[in-house]
Amino acid sequence: MCLAVPARVDTIKGDKALVTAFGCQEVVDIRLLASIDVGDFILIHMGFALEKISADDALFIIQAWQGLMEDGGEGQ
Amino acid sequence: MKDLWPILTSYRSPQLVHKMVHAIETLVQEKIEIMQVCGTHTWSYRRHGLDSLLPSHLSLLAGPGCPVCVTDQEDIDWVINLAQERQNTLVTFGDIMRVPGSTTSLAELRSRGTDIQIALSPLKALDIALSQPSRRVILVALGFETTVPAIAATLQSAHRLGLGNLSVALLLKQLLPALRHLFNSTRPDGLLCPGHVATITGKDAFAFLPKELDIPAAIAGFEPVDILMGLAELARQISAGAPQIANTYPRAVSDQGNLTAQSLVRSTFAPAPTRWRGLGTLDGTGYRLIGRWQRFAVTAPTDALTSLGTSQCLCHLVILGKAQPEACLHFGTECTPTRPLGPCMVSEEGTCAAHYYFPLLKPMGRTEA
Amino acid sequence: MPLTITFHSLSPWGERKHRDEVTTAASLWVLAQRCSMFMSIELIQLAHGSGGSATLRLFEQVFLPHFRDLGLQPDNDAALLSLGNDTTLAFTIDGFVVDPPFFPGGDLGILAINGTGNDLAVMGAKPLWMACSFIISAGTATATLERVVESMEHAAKVFSVQLVAGDTKVVESKGAAPQILITTAGLGILEVKEPWHVQRIRPGDELILSGTIGEHTLAVLGARHGWFERDPVTSDCAFLYPMLRKLHSIPGIHWARDVTRGGLGGIVNELAKASGYGIELYEKGIPISDLVASWCEMMGYDPLHLANEGKVLLSVDPEASPRVLAALQNTPLGKNAAPIGHVMDGGPPLVVLNTAIGGRRLVPAPSGELFPRIC
After folding, report:
1. CATH code of the domain in which C185 resides
2. Domain annotation covers residue C175
3. Banded model confidence at residue B340, pLDDT cuts 50, 70, 90
4. Helices H / strands E in chain B, number of each
């Protein structure tokens, strides 16, 4: 359940934002977010912005895993 | 601000997938059964062929995570009846179209010319209601905690627009309280928690799983690496014997969740009992409209509809993770996605459909891409 | 531990733990066969026209038993008719109905010429003559009909096809929106020495796809439901003969098929079934545009199930493969051509996909109308 995809906010006008998701443009409703800025990454679900996405967190956890793998070595 | 796209690509990296599978293999020594309660997890897991990579003693059970599958037969019939009333235009999401009712399905009705619109967003119902003032437009609201705020916001708009011809048929459900009921009778070794429900509710809302029920829990996203991170975290907790609530999807899930969405939901809905396929009627797992929003509710008939057909299949057990789809005698024979007997075969997220579409296939000798 | 009913005792598949993969796949196939015997069709639904397993079932239950002994050549897009001298004719017929009749990149009229022309071209024939039949429901705007007919005229002229006979019927629309159904029959002359035929497929054959998948379905769905307004997808609707003609002199092409209804997944499953061999595909090799891939992510669609109207899949001898690929890539329609898999040695006649992340899964035949997955 709950298909939601990441998108980048291009412009904001009132309750709506024009976003780019995987290279496609779409207008989404941004009323569910307390604050939002152009350039933010958001998660969209059924035409609504569900939440902002933290690129730092996205990077951190993947680097942590990559690091863990390298430290752990291949042979374990 | 970092660019997210290159980072997201690494969540599909074959090298990282390979390494993580190796890590999971070393962590999982004994047979473990992990439950997931999200159709998009089922779909992603099968679509990417993750099951062909993971050790066979790690099995993934699908719990009641597909909103179509958990919708009770009587509610399906109710929606079908609404569609058949001549003055109604039904606006619905695609998933429910093929669900068999006692006598017909929405897809069948639509192919005979019944006015049923498939929408990608509930906001579409507003446009339809505005442009066709003489029609009674009924939005079929289906979904879990993730979807509820979008429905609330849609009603807010309808109120602002002064729409008198829009109503909602509420089939919304709350997954979290339902999990408590579910784990009274079934107990997996760990729960892969649905990332987008958690986006709204927050991580803390899942804390009761380890604290009160002693079940290891990890909130996971939906890319292959996301799912593997969740599974690895669960395997770690299980082998350490220390259940926790872990958030392996921090890019979209915070501790508190989306507070704006939560308060919008609270001002629109109150918890109410609702019926689940396989679980029966459960207190506090559904929603009812409150205050001025009540006028948007389509009232269900006072006498409960009597559904003609009874469940001929094992859907009610499959939803609870108590039976694998292949255990059902109808699976793949009388019951296929074109002609489903039960809802688990209907939605592509449904466990049976996922098993039908992407049958298990362990590598028949490795080949290089 | 949860109470788990496994299917050791219940399943018709046999014991799960001890079966090997080939047996699993084989029993699945057997099951699919049995299923088509069990299920009767009471009412025709939209799914029966989608080109997936429902369409196959309709064909096998209703048509095949009656037409089997009348010379039907069911495994190819067009029948080959030898005239006894050096001439072999290719003959086919196809019906076209699309809602809405106009969509980005094409319309009903163009489809009616291209679709039938392509069915001839994939046999190695040159499409020359067509006849058309119109079934129009009362209430259709004449302007709409005219636009469709103009498109047909244009397409036929551009591709040097003669429209030599026709017929028109008007039917009641019975409450549903009025629509136009066009049926075109096509006749062509075989230009290749050995016809491209499913019986020539050999284990080890390489599968080459002429371009990106999925555009047509998304273009039509977008136009029908008002989706993708900001970034509409354009249909790949095209006449394939000019591209395929470049391949006529290359030996080692065994089979070709335009990848239409049912999508790549559907066509490859049909190929497996008709040839009796298993098929192996590589997800990384399958050409797909960023736009289609993006919309599929957002809609929850599997691009392998989306229809195309201007793509061809070829099964070729591995030695001929580089020449075929180069010839395709030299044409405007084939510039994204790529090898996407191969024919396995032996059965079961199923399709295995090696996923981009390194996993493996079976590719099922699509089984009906596509609905977006959203909640």
Report:
1. 3.30.1330.10
2. yes
3. confident
4. 14, 11
Query: In chain B, what residues touch C362 (CB-CB under 8 Å)?
Result: 358-359, 361
- Residue C24, chain A, CB below 8 Å: the answer is no
B258 to A43: CB separation less than 8 angstroms, yes or no:
no
Phi, psi of A23 (to 5 degrees): 90, -5
All residues of chain B having their beta carbon less than 8 Å from the beta carbon of residue C59 are: none
Please tell me whether residues C119 and C169 are part of one structural domain: yes
Cβ-Cβ contacts under 8 Å for B217 (sequence gap 6 or more):
B190, B191, B193, B206, B209, B210, B234, B243, B244, B245, B246
Q: Residue C335 phi/psi, 5° resolution?
A: -65, -25
Same domain assignment for residues C185 and C216: no
- DSSP alpha helix (H) spans, chain C: 21-38, 53-58, 64-67, 108-121, 142-158, 215-225, 241-245, 263-275, 290-299, 321-329
Angle, CA of B13, A37 and A46, to the nearest 5°: 65
Cα–Cα distance, C56 to C77 (Å, whole number): 14
> Under DSSP, is residue C44 helix (H, G, I), strand (E, B) or coil?
coil
> C211 and C183, same structural domain?
no
Nearest Cα to Cα of residue C288 among C272, C311, C260, C270? C311
Q: Chain A, 45-64: which have a CB under 8 Å from a chain C CB?
A: 46
* Domains identified in chain B and CATH numbers: 32-303 (3.40.50.11740), 315-356 (no CATH)
Q: Examine residue C45 and state whether it is found in any structural domain, yes or no.
A: yes
B198-251 per-position pLDDT tens digit: 999 999 999 999 999 999 999 999 999 999 999 999 999 999 999 999 999 999
- Angstroms from C34 CA to nearest CA on chain B: 7
**CB interface of B with C, residues 297-316, below 8 Å:** 314
CB C342 within 8 A of CB C254: no
CA dist C163 and C186 (Å) reads 9
Domain of C37, in residue numbers:
21-67
Between chains, do C21 and B362 touch, taking CB under 8 Å as contact? yes
Tell me, yes or no, whether C122 and C209 share the same domain.
no
Domain A5-72 has CATH 2.30.30.140: yes
In a shared domain, residues C203 and C285: yes
**Spatial distance between the Cα atoms of C184 and C186, rounded to a whole number of angstroms:** 6
Confidence at residue B361, expressed as pLDDT on a 0 to 100 scale = 52
Residues C50 and C161 in one domain: no
| Element containing residue B191 per DSSP (H, E) | strand B190-194
A53/B197 touch (CB, cutoff 8 Å), yes or no: no
Contact partners, residue B112, CB within 8 Å, separation at least 6: none
- For residue B147, which residues of chain A lie inside 8 Å, CB to CB? 2, 45-46
The domain limits of chain A are 5-72
Using CA atoms, how far residue B262 sits from A51, B146, B216, C354, in Å, is: 12, 10, 25, 42
What is the count of residue pairs from B and C with beta carbons less than 8 Å apart?
190
Query: Cβ contact (<8 Å) for A48 and B150?
Result: yes
The domain total for chain C is 3
Statement to judge: residues C39 and C124 lie in one domain: no
pLDDT of residue C42: 67
pLDDT single digits (tens) C279-311: 999 999 999 998 898 888 888 888 999 999 999
Token pair of B12 as six digits? 């599909």
In the stretch 332-361 of chain B, residues with CB closer than 8 A to chain C read: 332-334, 336-339, 347-349, 356-361
Pairwise CA distance, residues B343 & C35, whole Å:
19
Classify B128 as helix, strand or coil: helix
Q: ipTM of the assembly? A: 0.88
Please tell me whether residues C225 and C185 are part of one structural domain: no
Higher pLDDT, B222 or C84: B222
